[in-house]
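User: Show me an example of a complex going from sequences to structure tokens.

Assistant: Sure. Here are the input components:
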Amino acid sequence: MPINRRDLHDLLEERSRPAVERPIPWESLRTRVRGARRRRFTAVTAVTAGAVAGFAAVAVVASGSLLNLRGPDEDGHIAASVAGQIPAQFQEADGTVYRRVATATLDAPRKKSVTFDVEMRGKPLAILADCPTESMFMMPHVTVKVTGVSKVFTLSPAPSLSAGCQSNRPVDVMPLPAGTRRATFTVEAPKGFENVAPHERLERWRFGVYEWTPPATMKAASPPAEPPAAFGGRPPEFNLITKKSDTWPAAREVTITVPNTGRPLAFEAYCGGDIADRLSTEVRVNGRLIKGLLDCPAAPANQGGAYTDLGGPKPRSQKTVTIQVRLVAKIPEYRQRPGTLTVAVYEGPR
Amino acid sequence: MADRSEYDAFVAAAWQPLLRTAYLLTRDWAVAEDLVQTALMKAWLAWSRLGNEREAYVRKIIVNVHVSWWRRRWRQVEVTTGSPPDRTQAADDMGRADERELVWQALGRLPARQRAVVVLRFFEDMTEAQTAETLGCSVGTVKSQTSKALAKLRIDDSFASTFVRRG
């Protein structure tokens, strides 16, 4: 016999009630807030250190506002990629410089798409959106066409602006054919865009297209973040049994072999540095490709875990389980950007 | 600069209701706390622009980040090499508590978006329009997702009129 909605409400109320006994993790929250602010302004710091101009006029920074510095750019502005802004130029922590080559506005209530051309100079392109929402259901769709080429290009590694909106970073455009001098961008409003409530209606989406240049001398990669010791409930169901990291681009894959104890296994692969969320991974388990290319996410402490369940107990005849994760860069310039790849393996209950 | 004491007061007041929502979405206290902290961190970065809709803003981030995480997890968990999870339960001799437990388990098997709709509509007591705003989708989508979710949960839709809203 089905239960009714009142029962459903009571069930949800009951199951979530232990929340009242859980203390607020102030220390952890403050650490994360400090870390987020630091990351937001890291790019500015890097630019400041490298500026050769005679002066640097620094604006007072309020949360979400633009920090302007006098610098060598042609219009006199170098800025951090700060929320809500499409700066003329900025630099990421690994030293890669992003230079704006076009801007566009999608006036969503009146127009459902905007098309514009970008002149190319042989450098990879990326698009930064001033995201009025982080809802992944309301992301505009970006496509790129090249005259004489039938293929329609989109974003990489995933064809969505969502990751860029969440991290306030540019999202790469798929590599365009060698020798392309002009690319035509089309940004379309998402389906159902006009059906949201009036006060939620997004009047303007702003975009900047950037060409990016890796640093001439590659920095050393920062040490990788530690993987979580356990995951899956309280007490945790899966505990870390081993981990391994290596440095991109010197190493491109990490392989771990663990004994088959008969317990369920899971693993997590993640990237460190500015390559996170931008490179893809190819995963093999005991030599078998178990999935197609996926983006390599940032460390779980920043984004939450994305654990891959390898299923229940393996046959006794299988003495070991080997997990091989290979990083794939669709854009060759990523071989000049440092990062790390970490694979952590977890074992579940018997 | 954003007012830190105001932010702290907001966190102190909103933490538990937000954590309840996050737990119902994630069903894991550690992940729920991580989710709420992520949302509160984003709220701090936008604090000066939030006005009076702070809790709604944070709840919106929680729901959408959860769906985002879940999608990534779903993509990665879909390939398994072992036996499928044991989801069969004996249906006979089922008391009320068993029925509730089955509904709870079924809720855990809903896709993230449908689970979010259930939590927002039937725990947060949001209207269809409010749910649509929070999820960033149309009211029609909320209706269809609700219908699918309730069918999977075996909730009798005819009880809608007797459902009592909180506060």
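The lines above are the inputs; the final block is the predicted structure for all two components together. Helices of chain B lie at 4-26, 29-45, 54-77, 96-109, 112-122, 128-135, 139-153.
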